[in-house]
Amino acid sequence: MSKGPGLFTDIGKKAKDLLTKDYTTDQKFSVYSYSDTGVAVTSTAVKKGGLSTGEVATQYKYKNTVFDVKVDTESNISTTFTFTEILPSTKTIASFKVPDCNSGKLEVQYFHDHATVTTAVALNQSPAIDLSAIIGTPTIAFGAEAGYDTTSGSFTKYNAGISVSKPDSCASIILGDKGDTIRASYVHHLDQLKKSAAVAEITRKFSTNENTVTVGGLYAIDQLTVVKAKLNNYGKLGALLQHEVIPKSVLTISGEVDTKALDKVPKFGLAIALKP
C-alpha cells in the first residue's frame, strides 16, 4: 500500500486515542490465542453495572484476504471480509450482521502517494452512501467526508479536516456535525520512542455556545508500566495505570472522578488482556 496521507478518520486520531483509549469504568477480561494456520481467536467478557456480556471474535488470514467473525451473547453475528490489492492500491471491505439483513455494507479504499479516496455503500434497497477523500502527504493533509441518504435525498453528514504531523508532534482541526462543531487537537511526544506524550483538545459547539477543553498525557514509568491522565474544564478527571504483568499480557486499572462534585462516588474500571 502507498505511504500517502492516510484515511480521513486518521485526522485527529492520535489525540483521540490518548484521551479515550483504554479508559473504562467496566470490568473487562480478554483472552487471545493464535495458531500457526493464521487463525486468531479473542474471547471477551464485559461486566457493566449489573449486566454481563460476552463476545468471541475469530480472525483468519490467507494471502491477501482477512476473514473476521464476531458472535456475542445475544446471538448476533458480525462478519467482515477484507481483500487487499484486488485492484492495485485498493482495499475492499465487505461486512454484514445476522439476523439484521439490512446491515450489509461494502467499502472500497483507494490509496495513492498523495491522495486516499474511500467509498462505502449500504447493501439494502435504499442504500446510504458515504464518501471521503484526503489529499496531501504524511506530513500535511486536507480531507473531507460526506454521507448521503438515498431514501430522504438529504446529506446525513459533511465534515472537513486538516492535519499537520512532525516527528515529535501532530496537530489537527476538524469541522464536523455539518459545520456545527469545530475541534482542534495537539499531541507532543516527549521522547524519541514516543512512549510519553502530552495532548490538548478544544471543542466548540456553535449551536449551544459550548466549549470543552481537555488536557491529558501519557508517561512511561518503565518498559512495563505506563500511566495516563486527562482533565476537562467541567472537572472530570480520569486516570489509568497499565502494566504488563507477563510478556504481552496487560493489566489496566482506570478511574474517573468529578472534581466539582466530590460527594459523588468515583467510577473505577479493570481490564485484563492475556496474550500468548
TrEMBL record:
Pfam families: Porin_3
Coiled-coil ranges per UniProt: none
Keywords in alphabetical order: Ion transport, Membrane, Porin, Transmembrane, Transmembrane beta strand, Transport
Keyword set includes Transmembrane: yes
CDD domains from the UniProt entry: Porin3_VDAC (cd07306)
Chief location of this protein within or outside the cell: membrane
GO molecular function: porin activity; voltage-gated monoatomic anion channel activity
Family to which this protein belongs: Belongs to the eukaryotic mitochondrial porin (TC 1.B.8.1) family.
PANTHER family (alphabetical): MITOCHONDRIAL OUTER MEMBRANE PROTEIN PORIN 5-RELATED (PTHR11743:SF23), VOLTAGE-DEPENDENT ANION-SELECTIVE CHANNEL (PTHR11743)
Protein name (Swiss-Prot/TrEMBL): Porin_3 domain-containing protein
Species annotation: Cephalotus follicularis (Albany pitcher plant)
